[in-house]
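Q: Is it fine to ask for two folds in a single conversation?
A: Yes, each is treated on its own. Send the first.
Q: Here.
A: Result:
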Amino acid sequence: MSEPTTPLTPLTSPAPVTLQRVPSATVRLQLHREFTFDHARALLDDFAALGISHLYTSPITTAQPGSTHGYDVVDPTRVNPELGGEPALERLVDALHARGMGLIVDIVPNHMGVGGAHNAWWLDVLESGPDSAYANFFDIEWQPSNPALRNKVLAPFLGESYADALAGGRLQLAYDDAAARLAIAYYDHRFPIALADYSALLRAGNNDTATHAVADRFAALGTIRSLRTRRERADEARNALRDLATTEAGAAHIAEAVRTLNAQPDQLDALMARQHWRLAHWCTANDEINWRRFFDIGSLAGLRMERAEVFEATHALLFRLYRLGWIDGVRIDHVDGLADPAAYCRQLRRRLQAEHAARPADRLTSHPWIVVEKILAHDEAMRSDWGVDGTSGYDFMNQVGALLHDAHGETALTQGWLEWIGAPAAEAPFSATAVAARRQILHAHFAAELDAAASALHAVAQQERSSHDVTWHAIRRALAEVIVHFPVYRTYASTQQRDAQDTAILQSAMSGAAACLRRIDQPVLGWLDTWLGGQPAGQDKLRQLALRRCQQLSSPVAAKAVEDTACYRYGRLLSRNEVGADPGEFSMSANAFHHAMQKRALTWPHAMLTTATHDHKRGEDVRARLAVLSERPAQWLAAAHQWRTEHAGWVRHLPTGPAPSPAAQWMLYQTLVGIWPAGLDWHDTDAVRELAERVAQWQEKAQREAKLRTDWFAPDAEYEAASRDFVLTLLTGEAAQTFLPSLSAFVQSVAPAAAINGLAQTLLRTTLPGVPDLYQGADFWDPSLVDPDNRRPVDYAARHRALRALQTHADNTLAPLLAHWTDGRIKQAVLARALALRAALPAVFESGDYQPLAVTGSGAQHVFAFARTHGADAIVVIVPLHASALLGHTATPAFATGVWRDTTVCLPSALSQIPLHSAFDGQALQSPRLALGQVLAHLPVALLHT
């Protein structure tokens, strides 16, 4: 990572030390051991100069060693030492405060990282089972229907069968001197042995008095009934073992006992059979897991955050840091995974508020800023009673993306996609792809969770005479179809009767399920309707458990099926296949977008606005470019068919079908159009080779996520190799000499319009109601793909130089940057000027109203404009829409003189008689109507202010 060396000053006057109520603008940083708190600190002058008020970081608590994202937390009570630990965090916070800035952190209440050897809570559970102090921290079913797992935890961490691992000597007993713990070792994994087995192990093969004395301590634990006393005595016994191991004779006895057992596979097997865990191949998890995972990831275990002791233990560090004034708010990861998201958010708000009065006087804000990662389905409203400031912005990313798409291209692109893959028109709706993916994911990846939910519901059925004959299998069949047809991620009924919004959701799911169930099973839907919140659960523990199991099942199924499967199968236009978006919703009209923003201004004025995230499948400017294809469907279809014909000879025909498949080939061409740098010379072999490797890695992930010809569980090596060869042939092999100039020419033809989309998206994000977020490095053009591509190192030195130059000419027009628009500086400049205006007019952006502006004239359909006012202060924002037709064949994202003709934006009366000043080119305008030819004469977007 390149770092700036010369500090920058803000583009506006320094912010006051006392923070505003909510952040003005955030920058998201992905922290890991190669990019630590100190690396972030070195960039603060640049972020301040850009207009950022708060850093917003990935999780800062201790994660699995080497974690590149921080969501696999193993110790929520400590700041991650790989990031520099608490001392480095304090240095960062001090530097932020010196610049009038603050810190927002991502928190992970839903799950923890397990496996490996670093989660002390999890290791204690493996060692002590249901008697562990942390047995109820994790969402474990200790009495599942499978008798082999009663009072045990399935440990699906083996990369091979249990028998092969044991026979191959890869399961070995080991003694850890530091922890004074005996555990089975499997590569980096550790599975602690129950303390009840220590006595026999220590006594085996020796008569040493000291060793036997320690063994007696462990043996005595079994006679103690009090859990608290037993834990105290266990600590004493462990300390005695630690002391024994420091002696030469004791260490030798322990080593000999371990060696002897490892030499006897049958005895080792017998020992493992007695433990509170059951080792298994990782692929068994989907069928037999008896604890809740994060999605279907076996290394992330769900937490019982609804339990008070779990909440307090996992948030103690957060509360302390908030009390110290080190952090000012949080982003809650995967809120839908929690048992009761609403109750959790309200509890978190109360606890942070309780710490508020103790904060330093110079860090007092009116309240902590809290946003949640929430995926909202089409027409799903965010709940307003959670006590949060809104979502983390995936809904906005969807809305602004849809605005950029031209509805006129939908029919042609839909037909072109279906003809390309040879599918009938009946398969056109994305919903059909999503339902098929939901069914596959539920039964193949969440079978164990479905079984557990069905069992919980069956227990409820057996409580009442009227439902006594409702069988487990019938419940499972009916529940499966309800989950498959869920229109949203989940419902939120608790012990009370569900609300009208949840009732409508359930009725939609029930209707879809009824159409797919046999008539004999349809009556079960009535019982499910009752049990899933139709009647209050009250104090009925079985009803509460059943409701929780079902609500915590529908959410991960939706996420894996829609985001991680269907979005990789449905390829009509990949710019609409994004986290939080519905690929079936092709576009959004200007009027609908205005309505959504008016509602946002009234309901969620402080929610986050983002267009790029650590989760995105394609960078914001990749999507902005692909959106241009909705304006030019004929051009895209012609090019794609030409390339398909030219490359037919390099498609391999395997017994399983062509490689790559037609759908994968279509998506590959779109991806190449989306990420090919506008300024890249196709003769630059090194740059093209690097891009080819990125695309090949993306393609492998995309095809595995699609789960059609290959997948993560059982990769088809032959298909994947053939698909990779196809990519390399196109970009660096035999086809390159004809394909690269053709691809480059196509990109050059759409890139100027794409750049206008990118600038419009940037300006809208920074001026609409909400808090704009900048994903790391996206102040320049963002050509990234899905992770890990979107987490590559950022060239901050280049961004630093651009900011320095912008400061030098702070009062000048940005128009000269258009001559070099491909380098990204124009995007950064638009962002910086917009954020500077936010700092100068905070009330307008924090609480100003939102007024759609009428547009008249021949180009009215290509303009989107609005005003925001607060008292005497106001801004006006004007951006082009679907401007490809207006650009002609220009190589620059600028409009020729006369292209807008009679198009004007009508100002409200309050603004029509006062001068408006351009933040981008210094123009002063005053008129009831703003002529687009004048407003957009120097730059393709406009930001005016009083």
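Q: Second one now.
A: Result:
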Amino acid sequence: MSKFRVIVGVLRGGSAHWLRRCGESPARCWAEPRRGCTSEAASVPAAVTSSSSYVEEMYYAWLEDHKNVHESWDAYFRNIQACSLSGEAGERRPSTLLQGRVLSHSSDVAQKVVEDHLAVHTLIRAYQIRGHHVAQLDPLGILEADLDSFVPSDLITTIDKLGFYGLDESDLDRSFQLPATTFIGGEATTLPLREIICRLEASYCGHIGVEFMFINNVDQCQWIRQKFETPGVMRFTNSEKRTLLARLIRSTRFEDFLARKWSSEKRFGLEGCEVLIPALKTIIDKSSAAGIDSIIMGMPHRYGRLNVLANVIRKDLDQIFCQFDPKLEAADEGSGDVKYHLGMYHERINRETDKDITLSLMANPSHLEAVDPVVQGKAKAEQFYRGDTQGKKVMSILMHGDAAFAGQGVVYETFHLSELPSYTTHGTIHVVVNNQIGFTTDPRVARSSPYPTDVARVVNAPIFHVNADDPEAVMYVCRVAAEWRNTFNKDVVIDLVCYRRFGHNEMDEPMFTQPLMYKQIRRQEHVLKKYSDKLIAEGVVTLQEFEEEVAKYDKICEEAYTSSKDEKILHIRHWLDSPWPDFFTAQGEPKSMTCLPTGLDEEILQHIGQTASSVPLEDFKIHPGVSRILRGRADLVKNRQMDWALGEYMAFGSLLKDGIHVRLSGQDVERGTFSHRHHVLHDQEVDKRICISMNHLWANQAPYTVCNSSLSEYGVLGFELGFAMASPNALILWEAQFGDFHNTAQCIIDQFISSGQAKWVRNNGIVLLLPHGMEGMGPEHSSARPERFLQMSNDDPDHFPEFNGDFEVQQLYDCNWIVVNCSTPANYCHVLRRQILLPFRKPLIIFTPKSLLRLPEARSSFDDLAKGTKFRRVIPDEGPVSQNPGQVKRVIFCTGKVYYELNKERKQQNMDRDIAIIRLEQISPFPFDLIRDEVEKYPNAELIWCQEEHKNMGYYDYVRPRFLTVVANRRPIWYVGRDPAAAPATGNKSTHLNELRRFMDTAFNLSAFKGRDM
């Protein structure tokens, strides 16, 4: 073996061996031994902390000329060479060789020099890892941003701490070789220790604290180091400083103006974090320059939402000011919302880049972080429809409060969607307005993590903490964040450490709970004053120029205020954050009030059925169980029948043919919770090879997206809601694994889906598929809680609606959402197609079956989907009772699965001519017209409402007053079903069957029946 190969082998030994064992950089292991390292790896000495490539580079330089390296490395390489010539290197392991045997041949001085160099390398790494803990982040100077005043022992904050590394004061002026993992030297490769510490302090311990060393990607870490360590990197031209000052003036004076004009109004202003406005505009400028032309934003109602609308989105000031008028009347439909919840959409030219840009601020409720996944869903949809597969045209920005960012679980859920293939938006910039308090709660009792931003570490997002009273530091961090997102397409967090000048709102008294903080805040000089003084002292602007800029914006506000008094009516259509061009008229109305036919040609049904029962790809091996399912589908198609899975296939496939994108998302939706769907086939022999037959239906069809979600309801449902906002020409569905799993997404349902149109004029056609049915599976796998959806339905129970046009369509137009419980696959197919063929969009809630998925009686014929057929809001009894309705003794109204149990019992009791069973398929809006027809058809019959749910649940409380309105209180209507209960269902199978038997006996006992009057 040559001398060269032996030496390189020795030099590589420790680091390469460690990398094989631990998978981390050797410096990290040697600086901080980690759990899981083997004894061999952990034994690598601190004397070899630089990477193998760095040592090799030094060695090559030394081979050319020994003077090319420091004298300490010269001595080190000479000893290694001597060792290799003696053959020792080939006899011993590199790690053992480096542990002292070789160094023992050199002088103690040389050994000390080497150890000192490596100690300095460790010191540099310590600042990179922990420097943010001592950064000057709090503008008030009274709290530590990480809630801990402890100074890490490996940071050199005092001279005596040099001893931690075996150094002393005499070493401060010695020069040391810099490792390749730092940029503090600029062009220099060596620096005195005093200068090294000074530059590390400037990079990591000033007004910016950087958390990034947990990122497991070397290139990304190096990129961040270069951005913050390179000397002189944070420089601004005079022009940039003047722009920053002008933006800061607008941010500050807007809040001052509102405070003067409406001193007693809540506005949730930005005072204490005025730098947010120039920060957002810097992110937008930098992103626009990189090619982004659409930005979707979300933020809480706090932290200056009106300011963001005015100075970032550029909503007209007079439209904002007029909303403070208490006498204002709404001109459009809807109840509206408070002004600091509203959204906005604006297309304009970015003056910094001269490029067109679209800005959208999503409307949201007071549930602080609920808008996060909604924003992500809308951003993903815009990227999808524009073919922006890398997020180079569309991006999202999310603003958060510190307490909510740490405390709200939906933040975590949203982060965990960030890199999933079907949910990623290719990087979001998160801006945390960290005013170091949550309402009245001190952060020291509000979170367990050092920072409110620690949740972002789960996805290896870099976190930039910055003192919000240093505008230039904030702007630099925003530039870097925008560059990071554009370069790596990953999330990044900006933590604006600031304060809240007033209470939770302007009417609140914060001294009750934070007296010391607010004593300091009252003494705190405004950031605008501090920054303007700085620029005046630097000669960047004059005092006169500053005052003129302030007066200029004040004049703009005054003129807008005067103009706002002429606004007599509030046009809430200005609130739209996602307009749908060409879908509505210019006035925002549907272009028609008719629904296109939902029936289908036999040819289309056959084609979809054959594709659904086959594998379009060649040499694709499927599971034998799936093969049996496909053969069963083929038999159904041959017999012109369909089960639930085929009915869904017919709906999706026919819409895809018409160019309608279909997206189905949720837990395990690809196969289906009940193994009925199998929309994604998996090759049993080739990993990751899949087949989605639905995407092989037609040559020019729209794409079909079916994706298993993370185990989340709140975040994923919010995401799909946002996705549905982007376009009306898409069918977006979310399926719960079991119906009651929507419990954990109730906030999205209540705040966005049920009331979104009334509050924000936002049409949305999202579909919720909620498996529902009392089948003895226990309390948590039975009820989709239909009573909750029905309680929030807005149709009037005491008024029989009258319409001049199509009753069905007019009623749907007036409702806030549609609730159905289909009992046949054909009706399920029709209602999905109707959802798209309506001239407007409403959320659709479908209680889907479980046992009916395979029940032979619950099948439909192709004739039920033929041309001329449509969704049946009510399915009358078309059996023997319909031939002589005057002789019928009892009419049972029901919905969903219980129909088949009732029908089975009727046959067993031989009562086909005595009892009619009528299915209510569309529950809300209530089909008054059709129910009236059925009631009048059976003039001599007792009327019964039968449900399998408990009396205090299900549909009873909703249908009862509406039935009474239909019969005008002239006929009694009886209730049959389970008694009231606390839990949705029993967990005992025997009890379940006994309950079923009991109400079946009641429903069909004609002579003894004295039910409970509704």
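Q: Anything structural to flag on that second result?
A: Two points. The longest strand covers residues 942-950. Confidence is low (pLDDT under 50) at residues 1-52, 84-106, 1009-1014.
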